[in-house]
Amino acid sequence: MATTPTPHNGAIEGDIAKTVLMPGDPLRAKFIADTYLEDVRCFNTVRNMLGYTGTYQGVPVSVMGGGMGMPSIGIYSYELFNFYGVESIIRVGSAGGIADEVKVRDVVAGMGACTNSNYAHQYQLPGTYAPIASFDLLERAVAAGRDQGVELKVGNVLSSDTFYDDNDQATISWQKMGVLAVEMEAAALYMNAARANKKALCLLTISDLPLKGESLSAEERQTSFTQMMEIALAVAIQE
User: Fold this and answer.
1) pTM over 0.85
2) Residue of 15, 25, 106, 208 marked active site
């Protein structure tokens, strides 16, 4: 294990639980810690990318922001997997729903993550890599959702490098291929997990429908995604 702290994480070895929930927004990490965890301690404030460890139903769980985009979550998840001994990361984020059957506030589980990113280039693979979730985490998330009365929508998501895309037909093209929702991080997380032989899952709450013009406010995105958070926590304590 590499030396800690790292350039991006002020934690030392032992500060972080084996399972980490990772929202993009550090304030959502604080919300999860304040709302759900007991005996909470803050392990990171570097760059205001807040990280906390506590217990949920007696089991150690950590939560830490991952930022926006694949370069950001790529750094934070890489360090958690490779420097801090983290075994599982569950991304809990927001997404734009693009499939016809996806509605605002639905919870989507990214079984696979399509991408327009060049993140996989670093692995020098002789072909196209297909980033996928841990089936173990995915199976437990679906079961936890059903226990809580939430039917997850499971399928492909798109991890995009662009939020404002110059090609106004791009989203429709991905919709035609059955992609459920668009976000910006899952593919990098899944690739980092695969390379480190660890587990990852992306859970998403639909915050807007870009093709229909529906959306939630920034405050609602930060504090109201409780169904997704509770499903992720139920999965975390089974690790």
Assistant:
1) yes
2) 208
